[in-house]
Design a protein that fits this description.
Structural class: mainly alpha
CATH topology: Four Helix Bundle (Hemerythrin (Met), subunit A)
Strand content: under 5%
CATH architecture: Up-down Bundle
CATH superfamily: dinb family like domain
Order of helices and strands: HHHHHH
Distance between the termini: 54 Å
Amino acid sequence: MILRRIGLAIGLTTLLAVPAIHGQQRQPPDPMKAITGTFNSVHKNLLDMAEDFPADKYNYKPKPEMRSFGEVIVHVFSGTTYAAKAGKGEQAQWSELDSKSYPDKAAVVAGFKKAIAEADATLKATPAARFASSPEPWLSVLEHSAEHYGLLVAYYRLNNLVPPASRPKK
């Protein structure tokens, strides 16, 4: 027990001393920039997938009880739509959009683009101080979208495809 405390004290001292040794103190990231940048990056990757995945595979499901590729995208932008509303202070429920309202790839991509544009407009209109007091709803929606990005990578790989973000850069 005492050795563990000594080790912890040494570790903390080292962590605190590193910025001083380098002559600078590390500033915490700006919450607005961090959330906005990550939110935009994850949704760009998801939109790239939605646009890239073959239309004839939009109904692909790894197992019958799972959502199809297109249904996962609609599920993701259900959260993005919620964030656009809740981020403006509107009373909003995080409810599932009906994937039947988006019958094909073109409709899914158009719906997702609209949801991203609405979320982006809300993010840009949100004062920076708001992010410092609470990162919600953005943090929850960002986590949700990132989880489904990982799931969709598996859909790509199960179809012997390489996700756009994993392709070599030219």
